[in-house]
Amino acid sequence: MALAAIYLRLSRNEEQLDIEEILTHHRNALVKLAKQHNLTYDVYQEISSGINTQRAQLTQLLNKLDEYDYLLVMDIDRISRDNAYAEQIKTMLIANDIKILTPQGAIDLTQESNEMLYSFQAMLANFEYKQIKKRLSRGRLAAAEQGRWTNSNKAPLGYEKDKNQRLVIVEEEAKIIRYIFQKTLERVSANEIAKQLDTLGWRSRIGKVLTSSHISSLRRNVVYYGVVQACRRVNGRVVDEVFVENAHEPIIEKQQWLEVQKILEENTAGKFFNKKKATRKLQNLIYCNCCERKRYIQIDGNETDYIKSCSYKISNNTCRDRGHKYLPVEDYVINKVKEKKVDLEKAIQKLKSLDTSDEENKLKNQVDSLGKQLEKFEKRQKNLTIMRADGEISKSDFLVMSEENERQIKQVKQQLELVDIQIKNLKNTEKEQRRLEKIIDVIDRIEMLDPEECNAFLKTFIKKIWFSTNAIANHNTKTEVPEVTIEIEWL
């Protein structure tokens, strides 16, 4: 009795239907076909796209082709929708003298007409796949325009899909997202956030530990301030895009999302992030005023905190700025922060009297500056297009430079959106007053805060503390010590 291999493949776009029902229907049809031809059989089945050339079950079948006489499939497109791979399989079937049986009829590849029929059906299957993919993509974009989640069958962490394919907040997961964004605003690194989430026992939906790469991806996702975004690509390039705001309830406010993006752009190298738990109030904030590198705090032999001497190389010359006791620097910065209370109280009084002119003018100056940057980048984009049209730059160079320029345009536009929100918030004086009052409350308690809490608070409005002893590190204790430099760069 001849031996046959039954191959069952369920297409990805059929997964929305009853998988078991479809597989059972296909299996019954092919088993019946095998019995009609008096064949014994082995069954191979899997769920995969026909365009995929790496399929475990199909690979296993092809490795055992010399054991079979027949291959039973529902249709040629179940073997492959990739032209080149289909031709490769055809060559293997011919070499092993294997006939194909389908419910529509037999295909004997040793006959020229049947070989041509196989190739034609494979080519048709590939064309059909592309048409289906295009229609699905257009349908997905149309659904996204209505605010429905169509990017995948799974909703992003923090949400679930309702019966209308709209995202609904899952509070148990949403607290993880809020924590990630809050800690990023406090300039805690992705690696440290991952460790903290692990300590809290907060996991992904399927119980896995959230890694730093997961966190980096989550905090860039626009879905968390209520956006549904989808696009269609051709040859790797976006040809159509949908971006719908207020499509669902946000987990975080848009302003907070934009503030996080600004921090991430400023700290692309991660050098301003707090990579471990802060044990001192000014940890990861002090930078050398001579070489602009980070200064580190250590403990000397007398158990006293001190700012370590700087020893970075600058143009083959080593920076030798002397070390210094840490506590006087901390006291100086804390006192400067306390002085900010007067300005904050004045700002609150102006808000109460609806006088926000000073704050509004500062923000409008930022808008003007960002507007000039945007104009510069947009002009550069036009110039790149002209240079490409005139053949002055290659296509690959154009794509690289254009992509980088578009990234900068996107970044400036996000910053403009953030400033615009801040201007609008000035009119909502009650909300702004409450925010400033909370800051004043923390300032009043700043000396009682533990280092971790104080460090996180300071990083919300201090970017860097520039420090220098203005003296070279050496063992001569008799030299006159000049005044140190301490300059605070406020956010």
From TrEMBL:
Key words, A-Z: Coiled coil
Keyword Coiled coil: yes
Span of domain Resolvase/invertase-type recombinase catalytic: 3-147
PROSITE patterns recorded: RECOMBINASE_DNA_BIND, RECOMBINASES_3
Keyword Flavoprotein carried by entry: no
Pfam families for the chain: Recombinase, Resolvase
Gene3D superfamilies: Putative Large Serine Recombinase, Chain B, Domain 2, Resolvase, N-terminal catalytic domain
CDD domains: Ser_Recombinase
SUPFAM superfamilies attached to this UniProt entry: Resolvase-like (SSF53041)
A GO MF term: DNA binding
Record-annotated Recombinase domain positions: 156-270
Coiled-coil region list: 334-439
Entry protein name: Resolvase
Organism (species): Bacillus yapensis
Organism lineage: Bacteria, Bacillati, Bacillota, Bacilli, Bacillales
